[in-house]
Specification:
Helix content is 72%, strand content 0%. It is mainly α. It has one domain.
Amino acid sequence: MNTVKDKIAKNYYIYAGALISFLILITIVFLFPIEFSGYRTTDLLAPVWFGITETGGWKGGIFIFLILLFYLLIHFKRSSKKYSDLIFFISMVFFTQTFITGFSQFYAKDLFRKPRPNQLYLVEKGYMEKEGTHFFSMPTGERRKYLQEKIKQGDDSLMDIYPPILNKWIYDSGFSFPSGHSQTSFFLGTIIAFAILRTTRGKNRYFFIIPLIWAILIALSRVVIGIHYPVDVAAGALIGMSAAIVIISLKRVNSIFE
């Protein structure tokens, strides 16, 4: 019992920070009208939201994972800890991220088959025949090619959409629920926050807030540019945060950062 209490005490700020971040996210997405609020060429923050959302994709995820690895390599070298412990922790993070991503992309999305808001927007604009029934029955790769061709053949009704975001609409042509970007950002954000908090001292410990803010912004960006609904990002964030909390609650993981 004392071990559980000690573990909670050591990770209190992470547990509380992750939960508060999640509550901030769902408060904003469900109470404020931010859907499709930053996707037009005339929206001053459209490039900013696009840049933010890009850091939560697979390329951004790999880059951030490598930063985490580099940071921990330096820490373990300075603290003379065993690199076998680092390999264990990094492997747990990598394989868990791979598993939950695969679960969402190849199972959950096809199970719920929920269209994205931008896809329904294109249906309303007349870019898909028969209200998109043919489009939504296609494999993901074919949907991407279909959208590319339809938009090339279309009129100027999409000219007001910020071009990189329109390209993002085409590339992210899979189904909507849950949000993979939100899942990745809350998973890595919580893991990195844990690593910062357990490897720093004094005022530097408060830097653990930064990755949690990043996670919130990633999830918000998906709603703002019209790729996900609020429930999509809430579900993705919950999955990612829960998976991260499981890892940082493991006895061996906590012993590594003693």
